[in-house]
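user: can you give me the structure for this one chain? tokens are fine.
assistant: on it. calling the predictor now.
[tool input]
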Amino acid sequence: MSKKNIFKDDSPFIEPKVDSDGFTDPSKPVKEKSKGRFAFFKDERTHKVFGLLLLFLSIVFMVSFTSFVFTWKVDDDIFQRSWNEIFSSRDIHAENWLGRIGAVISHQFIKDWFGVSSFLDVYLLFVTGARIVLNAAIVSLSKAYSYCFFFLVWGSIMLAYIIRDHDYLFIGGAFGYELNIWLEGVVGMVGAGFILFFSFLILLLI
């Protein structure tokens, strides 16, 4: 009857981690370095800070957008200059409640892009930031983003279709204005109206 060799270790040999200086450091696991690279992004404190940043941006956007409705005519003249000159020159004064930065943000989002539909961006920033900070589902983010992206585009075109006064084209934004001009050029004014109406009905049925 053979005796079991108590000194024999059948476990597989794992090569110890060797440092760059040639010395082994058994206290450090092999994957510790790779895990450390992403530890910052997995830290809950990082998530909270990012969520608070989104909430802060939602307030900044809300204030600058709201101010734009009252001060856009006065601040419109400063955009005859480059952005570099707007921020570097001390002679430029913006009436926007958040100064030049508020005037630039609101001008870009409302006048150059999606018009007053850009207020939906405020809502998205707020619900996303609140979701991260509170770690609770206030609303369904997937539905919020889907509906907001639809109305961001559809609302911009619809407002540009309805409001044709040159002094208030900013309500639909440059995006809505240009897309509405193209749509009416392809299917006519009546056809464009039907497309906008039925696209809204399709959304309600989905």
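assistant: here you go. The two ends are 78 Å apart (CA to CA). The CA atoms of residues 198 and 204 lie 10 Å apart.
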